[in-house]
Amino acid sequence: MSHTSSSLKQLALQKFKKNFWGVFSFCFIILVGLVSVFAYVFAPDNSQVANQMHLSIHSKKPGFKVDMLTIPSQLVTDQSWVNKVFFGKKNTDTEIPISEYEVQEDALMYKEYASDGLEGVEKSISLNAFPDSRIDGYIKKKTFLFGTDKYGRDLLSRVLVGARISFFIGFVAVFISLFIGIFMGSLAGYFGGKVDAVIMWIINVTWSIPTLLLVIAITLALGKGFWQVFIAVGLTMWVEVARVVRGQIISAKEMQYVTAARALGFNDFRIIVKHILPNIMAPVIVISAANFAGAILIESGLSFLGIGAQPPMASWGAMIKDHYNYIILGKPYLAMIPGLCIMSLVMAFMLIGNALRDALDVKS
């Protein structure tokens, strides 16, 4: 039996490897996952939630360059490198975009950057504000590859950090939906009768409520926030899993191996967990991939409505909300870049779901 199972797994893996779009989507998802985990390593602005604002350089086009003066802070932040890698740097330094500067005796004269043809304010700062009275390394040319948003924040950094929410909401929501859905579907399909009737009534009631409205209601009950959205989305996606598991178990419990397990005296819990569930996981895996995509879209919609991840936390949906009016103001990239990110990640999960469906189809 184990040899046959191993052979089926190898066959499914070979079929999956032959699917170009499935492999490509898998590699893309792995890449996005790595970027999500190590976002602050790749982001040019590695401050917490990439929230360094420079209003004088707001809404600049991709590739914009400016001299950035960094004035070191006297505050000492106690932060481990692990915390910096995963949660961003507690940046207490002051960054000022400047258009020109000059060192005069014991002071640095600089002119703040001003857009739209305006003249920047001329200011000066003592060289004593810099270590060893040297400004080397404190004035650097900074390039914004994706431009800046309406608050002057680095758009590339916001996109990279925002990937974390969109990616991890899929994992949390799918985990919650699988836990509840498999439990409820197994009870309904295996025991039938009144248990099935009660659970199907719960499923039908939940199914009849529009998903977005149900998520909004749960979110308002739990409160606005990062983890609240994850839980709310997961609590609304279990019905699809439960219906699939129920249907599969109704068919599987009449199979000979289940009858043999009952004859050997195995209890119901062991029969469900050890014998039935491993044989019906193929459709569950496929629907989980679709739920990943659905969770990303729901979270983006909630952030767009303002009840998802709260500012200043970066979220692709919130970025679209902040900049959708720029589409008619000649700067559509501010909303299109996060929109394309959402589309790419959702498409990748849908393609990998199709590839898994084809690979796990025993009839082909």
TrEMBL record:
The keyword Membrane applies. It is found in: Cell membrane. One of its GO terms (cellular component) is plasma membrane. Residues 163-353 form the ABC transmembrane type-1 domain. Keywords: Cell membrane, Membrane, Transmembrane, Transmembrane helix, Transport. Its main location: membrane. The chain crosses the membrane at residues 20-43, 165-191, 198-220, 226-245, 276-298, 333-356. One of its GO terms (biological process) is transmembrane transport. InterPro entries: BP-dependent_transpt_permease, MetI-like, MetI-like_sf, OppC_N. It is a multi-pass membrane protein. The keyword Transport applies. Pfam families: BPD_transp_1, OppC_N. Belongs to the binding-protein-dependent transport system permease family. PANTHER family: D,D-DIPEPTIDE TRANSPORT SYSTEM PERMEASE PROTEIN DDPC-RELATED (PTHR43386:SF1), OLIGOPEPTIDE TRANSPORT SYSTEM PERMEASE PROTEIN APPC (PTHR43386). This is Peptide transporter. It comes from Flavivirga eckloniae. The lineage of its organism: Bacteria, Pseudomonadati, Bacteroidota, Flavobacteriia, Flavobacteriales.
